[in-house]
Design brief:
single chain; about 280 residues; mainly alpha; two-stranded antiparallel ribbon; about 60% helix; globular
Length: about 280
């Protein structure tokens, strides 16, 4: 949460990693540890019996969330441990297979071109707010089969949920709105089931002969909206921020378009758009 660290975290990471303190400790926000070495991060991610995914935020949970309404709604599979993690993940994998995603590709390209055309017409733009921010919200709304007119609401909820996670009231407001919205979507589909619709399909899925719990359906929708939107607009924005500061990289990619797949992988690695915690 320190502005200087956010601006340039790499010197701090290097200092921690290469000192006698590769797993740093802070007492802020009820305390947390920061592993900085690859081997430690992998071990913590894999040793689920010691390090549970039940809590994935570095800051404490919203007070009263576990006991209150929607306390059971998490964000499976990233909040799940084995053995539940296996089926939590398996059920949604087909949605993200190359064949399934391909049907959204042309619409996504058209949307990006439309946003770029608007920039050209205006002559100037904020690349984050006028471009990156619109892409995942509309694509995920399309994938979930929810109204595109909700874009500004989705944006407000996601920003309140994640951009300032020290704002407990803002997080509570966002969570309540998101869960109530998806509860209404589920209720509407019970009345009017849809064909080729992700939420309807999820509601009808069975595991070991039983329909999946409603908390799982709400949790997956919660994950796809919040995590899908925030990570994607952050990744796109970070890539554009990098390119704006490195004309030599822009030239390199213009001269060698075959480098694009490598550049995308490296930008995603360098500007990893999400922080995951374990308990």
């Amino acid at each position: 949460f320190e502005p200087e660290f956010v601006k340039d975290p790499y010197p701090s990471f290097s200092e921690i990693r290469e000192s006698q303190c590769p797993i740093a400790r802070t007492e802020r926000y009820e305390g947390s540890w920061l592993p900085t070495r690859y081997e430690d991060v992998v071990a913590i991610a894999q040793e689920y019996e010691t390090f549970t995914s039940r809590g994935i935020l570095v800051v404490p949970p919203i007070p009263g969330q576990a006991e209150g309404a929607y306390g059971n709604v998490a964000a499976p599979p990233i909040t799940s441990d084995p053995p539940d993690h296996h089926w939590h993940r398996r059920l949604i994998l087909p949605v993200f297979s190359p064949q399934s995603v391909a049907k959204f590709e042309q619409g996504t390209r058209d949307l990006c071109n439309q946003l770029i055309d608007e920039v050209i017409d205006k002559g100037t733009a904020d690349a984050a707010a006028d471009y990156a921010q619109h892409i995942p919200v509309r694509v995920i709304a399309n994938l979930l089969g929810v109204p595109l007119e909700m874009e500004s609401d989705f944006t407000a909820w996601v920003r309140a949920a994640l951009e300032n996670i020290t704002d407990v009231e803002g997080r509570k407001w966002a969570r309540t709105n998101i869960i109530e919205f998806f509860l209404a979507q589920v209720a509407e589909r019970k009345q009017n089931p849809r064909e080729d619709d992700f939420i309807t399909e999820l509601m009808n899925t069975e595991v070991e002969g039983k329909v999946v719990p409603i908390e799982y359906v709400l949790g997956v929708c919660n994950l796809m909206l919040v995590a899908g939107v925030d990570t994607t607009w952050s990744a796109i924005g970070s890539c554009m921020w990098h390119m704006a500061q490195h004309p030599e990289h822009r030239k390199q990619l213009r001269d060698n378009p075959d480098l694009w797949p490598t550049a995308i992988e490296e930008l995603l690695r360098m500007y990893a758009p999400v922080t995951m915690a374990r308990i």
